[in-house]
Amino acid sequence: MAVIPLRRIGPFEKLLSECTQMAFAEGVAERNGYGREELPELLRIAGEVVRESGRKGSFASRLIQEESEGKRPVTACVLTLGEGVDSLQDRYREKGDMTAVYMTEVISNEILMKSYAAYDRMLTETSKYRIEAFLFPGSSKDCPLSDTEKIVTLLSAPVRCLTSFCMVPKKSVAFYAYLTEDKEKECRSICETCSRKDCRHRREGKGQEEKK
């Protein structure tokens, strides 16, 4: 799969549209401790982030392991909101508007979090597969942080991987997705936003672990 602009992929285009709505701003406010009086500014900045993501944001994926006996199909993926979001944040920083800088940060992160489910929808609309599990570079010994550069290079993504394995544009993610045809095994998002409490791939947050 070639690098495709987010605005040309149905589920991602729909996601960006949803992120300009008040319901999205209300969700961001609730999860990040903002009051209702800050909703207009959150919504305004969300519109700017979406505009920049629509201009330069892109997604790329490639099947790197075919389905065979004892093996699940696996894709390598890179998603970026594009350099425009970094520039937007820099402009606010230059103006000394740190509130807007942080709002841009949390809004961008929220869009990235929702993008995993958008990829799952894309798969179900265009193939027989859905996502069973996500694997991120640095999350295990079998998937070292250096895999970030490996994935970016493999897909010729419009992202630069630094020696620290951070990516530029900053609002970018690289990951592997394990696929399944079984709807019962579907994992539509990463654990923090997933409702499947009984999923065997689920990783509880630190706070939840401490309560056990």
Question: Explain this structure to me?
Answer:
This protein has 212 residues and is of the alpha+beta class. The chain has helices at 10-18, 22-32, 39-56, 83-94, 98-126, 147-155, 206-211, and strands at residues 4-5, 58-65, 74-80, 130-135, 160-161, 167-168, 172-180. The protein has a single domain, classed as NADH Oxidase. Helix content is 44%, strand content 17%. It has a five-stranded antiparallel β-sheet, with helices on both faces.
Tally of individual helices: 7
Supply the CATH class: Alpha Beta
Terminal residue distance:
43 Å
Percent range for β-strand residues? 15-25%
CATH topology-level name: NADH Oxidase
Helix and strand element order? EHHHEEHHEHEEEH
* Overall domain count: 1
What is the CATH architecture descriptor?
3-Layer(aba) Sandwich
Arrangement of strands in the largest sheet: 1-2-3-7-4
Which term fits the overall shape? globular
Give the low-pLDDT segments: 205-212
Regarding quaternary structure, what we see is single chain
How much helix, percentage-wise, in residues? 40-55%
Give the tally of β-strands. Answer: 7
Q: Based on helices, strands and strand pairing, what is the structural class?
A: alpha+beta
Helices and strands in order, then pairings?
Layout: E1 4-5, H1 10-18, H2 22-32, H3 39-56, E2 58-65, E3 74-80, H4 83-94, H5 98-126, E4 130-135, H6 147-155, E5 160-161, E6 167-168, E7 172-180, H7 206-211
Antiparallel strand pairs: 1-2, 2-3, 3-7, 4-7, 5-6
Helix pairs in contact: 1-5, 2-3, 3-4, 3-5, 4-5
